[in-house]
Design goal:
28% strand; alpha+beta; 709 residues; 5-stranded mixed β-barrel; single chain
Length: 709
């Protein structure tokens, strides 16, 4: 209908009422009129048509009116990210006085006052407010209960309906639903009392509820758990390949309880390697049209936080019958691969199996063997297997790098908490030989499974895809690096994974390498799930999926379900194909969203806990490196990846301004200024746990020599 309506307005001067449009389109029923009215409202919101004061529609030709989403900053301004299909425009600056009631996340129409390098404008009207549920602290104002949102970007007055308060009291953290709008704010109802703000763990739970992550399992799921066995029966083994006599074991972190994957290896007489990747057969227990299945799909992923895991599956499955614990029978789906000395897959087989892991190894102890040649007690029978695995992993990694695998070598921090959940230390995660070995083997298995199904071109499937980075972002990065004094050579148009490798290789000796690597990673698209295979750019893989973690990722559980349906049960009929064609796109899109929510939640918890940790170190001196510079000041990253901001106003020894062309702060006296990669000593000025922010100031005494450079 939309195309037909636009066809009526080819003449830019034409103005038509709703009835005139209805008649011109030849619509005759009430239902068609209702659809027309809804379409006209949508087209008005999309700035395709404009409704005049005389009640007529005209073609929208005002290029200064744009549609976008409010991105609110913590201050007296916000930005609107333009999302319409018109000429691309940078984010529009909006002063707080020009927001007209719009808040972070609102879809708005903004009138752009000036279109230059930094456009600014005024919000004309709010098109859509998605915000319905939010987390905050209960307070009392003028004898009325109100909710102070945890998110400082949400500047709303929110009252709690007395009849819908669940007896919440001041100091409680709550999840509320916004109800009707009032003159001075919103009315709301309490959906959940998370706990008192000072109770252990409530700080993290508040963030969990903010992202809509389910904490508890419903009664239907608990009821279905009664039928889940605690051990594998002889009847369940019938028809499966019995691998219980094979030397199979697992390697995981010290505190891992949900063990998805086990591995085995042999050296064949022809010199090739026989690698076995054995994955927990979750889909055997989590069947379609059950509460367990629906809940797992809704959750999409397990969420790993500083002091807890919020599992996709109940513990009876994730830590019990599905977990590949040592010395017990477990059902698995095995992918057995023959690989030659160049890392090429010679042959493979995928089948249902039963296994018995010999030992639950840890990365720490495996690394002792592979990196220091020290054999921990109990590992003696497996040393030769581990060294053979390392031999194959080295071959696979060289093969991956040759074809374009990009290793950004990004460090990650680990937050250590005490029994109450309080952060007591922040360290770097170790990514040693054992961790890389398992990564290489899992990637090989994921590719093998994906290519096996992709060979059946007519079968719907769920792939893990990663598109090419945009040329514009890569150009911005090259300019950024050039401003820091590094001149890169190579091809930067129609970029290939090998070109990204070349960039990283040229920068590997730069003292700012960790900064540059992070910035280049941000130039990349996000990897997502999709039914359309376009390959995985970052891995240099033409065909990839997620098969190896079905306990904690629903797409992997889905891949297992499809393997059982297509390969083991031989169902490839038209009805099956049609069902999956309709079913899988939603699973892919929903799983991608839940993954983003999980990552954002984990990042926000980390920021909050880092601020909590640094709040015990106010006034202390730390060494760090300038990791980012903006017009607000410069961010300094410590060796454990804690990052804090030195605000422009706290650089009191000079008057500094932000130079965007060189990404630096230049002073009137200190002409050299501050640049990315500068090493500084800083003092912790402030740490605000509630917003996850840390402020530093320069240790002027320690930096007197630096400031005189």
């Amino acid at each position: 209908m939309k195309e037909n309506i636009l066809g009526l307005f080819k003449d830019n001067n034409k103005a038509l009422t709703t009835i005139e449009i209805n008649d011109a389109l030849g619509l005759t029923t009430v239902e068609e009129l209702r659809e027309l009215e809804e379409t006209l409202i949508e087209m008005e919101n999309n700035l395709e048509l404009r409704h005049t004061n005389k009640g007529k529609y005209v073609k929208h030709d005002d290029e200064l009116e744009r549609v976008g989403i409010v991105l609110s900053a913590k201050g007296d301004y916000a930005f609107v990210k333009i999302t319409d299909d018109k000429t691309p425009l940078k984010d529009v600056f909006i002063h707080a006085s020009n927001l007209n009631g719009a808040i972070h996340g609102d879809t708005v129409v903004v009138r752009v006052n000036k279109i230059e390098d930094r456009p600014d404008g005024v919000v004309e009207r709010i098109l859509k407010r998605d915000l319905m549920n939010l987390v905050g602290e209960v307070s009392e104002i003028n004898n009325r209960l109100v909710v102070i949102p945890d998110d400082p970007k949400i500047k709303l007055t929110i009252y709690i309906d007395k009849e819908k308060s669940m007896n919440a009291m001041p100091g409680h953290k709550v999840l509320v639903r916004l109800l009707n709008k009032q003159e001075d704010g919103y009315n709301s109802e309490v959906l959940t009392i998370i706990g008192h703000k000072n109770d252990p763990g409530v700080d993290i739970l508040s963030i969990v509820y903010k992202y809509g992550i389910e904490v508890d399992f419903n009664d239907q799921v608990k009821e279905e758990l009664n039928s889940i066995p605690d051990s594998v029966s002889e009847e369940e083994i019938v028809g499966r390949t019995d691998l219980r006599d094979e030397v199979i074991f697992t390697i995981d972190g010290d505190d891992t309880k949900d063990i998805d994957d086990a591995i085995s290896i042999e050296k064949l007489e022809n010199g090739n390697y026989k690698l076995g990747v054995h994955i927990a057969d979750v889909s055997y227990y989590v069947k379609e049209k059950t509460a367990l299945y629906e809940t797992a799909m809704d959750r999409g992923t397990s969420v790993y936080l500083a002091d807890r895991v919020i599992p996709m599956l109940p513990h009876k499955l994730s830590n019990g019958i599905c977990s590949l614990n040592p010395n017990v029978d477990r059902l698995a789906i095995s992918c057995i691969m023959e690989i030659d000395s160049n890392g090429k897959l010679v042959s493979h087989d995928i089948f249902e199996s039963v296994i018995k892991s010999r030992i639950q190894m840890t990365y720490k102890k495996v690394n002792k063997i592979l990196e220091e040649d020290i054999v921990p007690e109990g590992y003696e029978p497996f040393v030769d297997k581990l060294k053979l695995m390392q031999e194959l992993a080295d071959i696979l990694r060289k093969m991956k790098i040759k074809r374009g695998y990009i290793d950004f070598d990004i460090d990650e921090s680990k937050i250590i908490v005490d029994d109450t959940g309080k952060a007591i230390d922040v360290t770097l995660r170790n990514r040693g030989t054992g961790e890389k070995l398992i990564e290489d083997f899992m990637i090989m298995a994921n590719e093998t499974v994906a290519e096996h199904i992709a060979a059946y071109e007519f079968l719907p499937f769920i792939y893990r895809i990663h598109g090419e980075p945009s040329e514009e972002k890569i150009t911005q990065f090259i300019n950024y690096v050039s401003a820091c004094g590094y001149k890169l050579t190579g091809k930067f148009k129609d970029i290939k994974p090998s070109d990204m490798q070349n960039i990283l290789s040229q920068l590997k000796d730069a003292k700012e390498f960790s900064i540059f690597s992070n910035l280049l990673l941000r130039c990349m698209q996000k990897a997502v799930y999709d039914t359309n295979n376009i390959g995985h750019f970052g891995l240099g893989s033409r065909c990839y999926t997620h098969f190896t973690s079905p306990i904690r990722r629903f797409p992997d559980t889905t891949v297992h379900r499809l393997l059982r349906k297509y390969l083991f049960n031989g169902k490839m009929d038209n009805d099956t194909i049609r069902y999956e064609e309709l079913n899988l796109p939603y699973i892919a899109e929903h799983s991608s969203k839940k993954e983003r929510d999980s990552v954002d939640c984990e990042r926000e918890v980390d920021d909050m806990k880092k601020a909590e940790y640094m709040s015990d170190h106010i006034g202390e001196v730390f060494s760090g490196m300038v990791s980012s510079i903006t017009n607000r000041g410069m961010y300094v990253s410590l060796p454990n990846l804690i990052e804090g901001l030195i605000k422009l106003e706290d650089l009191t020894e000079d008057n500094y301004t932000f130079d965007e062309s060189t990404i630096s702060l230049i002073g009137k006296k200190n002409k050299r200024g501050y640049h990315l990669g500068d090493e500084l000593e800083v003092i912790v000025k402030d740490a605000r746990k509630e917003v996850g922010e840390i402020d530093f100031v320069i240790n002027n005494e320690a930096n007197k020599i630096y400031l005189k450079r």
